[in-house]
């Protein structure tokens, strides 16, 4: 987690620059907006819970979070992973109550952005509005791809596909160093995202590591051969819409 918040919107800016070149003025506006109301949450703490009234849009500044639904018997389905620079539910404030929860996977810092601020920044920087719509549509596209994994991909393909996606999303915002990036997900997190059991995930991760294309362990992901990993996962990056897949 960063020690300062000089540029709290830096990861969102980096992601938007994958779609269009932002101006220095719009970047300053994003950083200013993101610095006004910064909050934090500990690992496992809800940022917002199902049933709460959403009043703001949450921009993840540091750390990882997830969107999830809980069943009455305690089972959890993870619906999305949020990385630094992600906006959690861009238009959720129009709802009366949350129909899902957002929880911190790691300690996180996030900015609580008011709807009025989006209106002001869009009026002042019209091109930025198009980029924000793009960000929202990419989030929807990722959700559709996850549905394909749960419904059609086998276990090895699903875990490899998730590794590819998270690696490329982190690379786009500058959070891959060499071939390595943080990977704080537990095997239970992966299981709850992909509709698998934890023992099945454990066996699948071991099988994936044996390919030599990737080393996936708690805390770190190292992609040694991205081309072969993508082939194994049947990974087509078109659903990420202009995010780098070099």
TrEMBL record:
The keyword Cell membrane does not apply. Gene3D superfamilies: Jelly Rolls, Winged helix-like DNA-binding domain superfamily/Winged helix DNA-binding domain. It comes from the Bacteria. GO terms for molecular function: DNA binding. GO terms for biological process: regulation of DNA-templated transcription. Keywords: DNA-binding, Transcription, Transcription regulation. InterPro entries: cNMP-bd_dom, cNMP-bd_dom_sf, HTH_CRP, RmlC-like_jellyroll, WH-like_DNA-bd_sf, WH_DNA-bd_sf. Residues 153-227 form the HTH crp-type domain. This is Crp/Fnr family transcriptional regulator.
């Amino acid at each position: 987690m960063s020690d300062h918040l000089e540029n709290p919107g830096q990861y969102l800016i980096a992601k938007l620059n994958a779609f269009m070149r932002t101006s220095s003025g719009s970047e300053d506006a994003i950083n200013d907006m993101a610095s006004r109301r910064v909050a934090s949450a500990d690992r496992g703490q809800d940022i917002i819970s199902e049933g709460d009234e959403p009043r703001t849009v949450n921009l993840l500044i540091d750390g990882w979070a997830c969107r999830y639904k809980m069943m009455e018997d305690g089972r959890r389905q993870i619906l999305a992973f949020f990385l630094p620079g992600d906006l959690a539910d861009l238009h959720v404030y129009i709802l009366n109550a949350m129909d899902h929860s957002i929880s911190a996977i790691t300690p996180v810092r996030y900015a609580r952005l008011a709807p009025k601020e989006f209106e002001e920044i869009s009026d002042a920087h019209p091109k930025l509005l198009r980029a924000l719509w793009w960000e929202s549509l990419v989030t929807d596209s990722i959700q559709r791809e996850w549905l394909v994994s749960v419904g059609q991909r086998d276990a090895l393909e699903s875990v490899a596909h998730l590794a590819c996606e998270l690696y490329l999303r982190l690379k786009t915002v500058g959070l891959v160093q060499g071939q390595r990036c943080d990977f704080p997900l537990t095997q239970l997190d992966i299981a709850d995202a992909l509709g698998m059991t934890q023992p099945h995930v454990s066996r699948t991760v071991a099988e994936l590591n044996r390919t030599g294309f990737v080393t996936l362990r708690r805390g770190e992901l190292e992609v040694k051969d991205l081309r072969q990993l993508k082939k194994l996962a049947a990974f087509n990056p078109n659903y990420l819409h202009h995010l780098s897949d070099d």
